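Please annotate the following for my students:
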Amino acid sequence: MRICLIAEGSYPYVTGGVSSWIHSLMTSMPEHEFVIYAIAAEKKQQGQFKYKLPPNLIEVREVFLDAHLEEAAQWGKRYHLTPEQKRNLTSLVSGTKDVNWPELFQLIRSDQFSNVSEFLSSKDYFDLVEHLAKTNYSQVPFTELFWTLSSMILPFFTLIRHDIPEADIYHAVSTGYAGVLGALAKVIYNKPLLLTEHGIYSREREEEIIKANWVKGYFKDLWINYFYTLSSSIYELSDQVITLFGRNRDIEIELGCNPDKIEIVPNGIEVADYATVTRTVQDDKIRLGAIVRVVPIKDIKMMIQMFALVERAISNVELYIMGPAEEDSEYYDECVQLVKTLGVKNIIFTGMVQIKEYLGNLDILLLTSISEGQPLAILEGFACAKPYVCTNVGGCRELIEGRPDDDFGPAGYVVPVMHYEEMASFVIKLCRDENLRIQMGQNGFARVAHDYKRTAFINSYKQIYKELVGGIHTWQV
């Protein structure tokens, strides 16, 4: 079987999280061939892989969202679009979700469109922007709306015009651009389409846009609705949707996904893989750790603010932030400056490390994200019997406190997003109570060993692939 995994902004350019999940999936199924269809932001990332690719990964097909910059355009062309084509394009940018995806894909991939930039220089595109300006944005400068819409749909058009690798099954690991390409593959090849949604992509983009300085206030809704519209493509065209916990399923249904399509398959690891992780340093220091990329959605600034309070109360404490910082160097610089401004002494940004070399010497693990799915980092910490203090995002509460039928006991504490003072109070409590740390760590270990086995996760996907390829899953254009 040949499986095409469609990934945006993750494997093989970024380590941890979804990337680790993808790598684990492929290496656990040597009997199948995999193709990675990788979506990256910039062409300068080409070939910059962070993983040793497994032998059953037969191709990495790379596409870049800035590819349109190489295109030349002629102004003023007229495409003579039909009323239905105009309606589809208007629905795409206005956020109504009322898009006939097969017809829109067919238009963008047709010979009518010699390149993306030329369409955005056409009279038809001007008419589209003018219509939206009159109906929704009459008080907004027309040129701002024109260029905002252009920056929105340029990547979308660019991706749709790329060739899709042939496979027996298409598996998108998020909605958004990856989901759109999965929907396109479904329409072109009429093969089974599977979506795994770790976090809710459209909700994550909404949170980022609300905070973003580069989006003017009156365009925030436009951007947010656009990403919800993109996500609707794969909710509509997928044969099956996998999510990791119950709350995600509820949100997907709320966003328009057919509940009959959705199945819950939790992440998993093997605790035996962490059996050799032991404490190698014997001293009186209490070491906190975070397995995390230094990017805004992980809210490292909250972690720094929280640790500033902990450091004032606990003299022998250290914080290790373990993960890459190069993904958003500007944000990393801001974090370093915040450390200096707050006068924090004992934060260490390790960069990329072998996590197992650090886990044994850590006493408490932290997660301060604004959005998550079901973090593998928490499962890794539990496999080493370490307690967690984390924000109430994604499946974190379920991991820390357990499901209703779970009697293992709490494995740490959960606090609201951005509540660094409350998080600090729980961290201080654990710092001062070694027995509580040990007990909560053991609770987490028991939970992950019982409920989150890697073999169960892999076997579930093997069965899903088998059933999808063996079934009849057709889309009539």
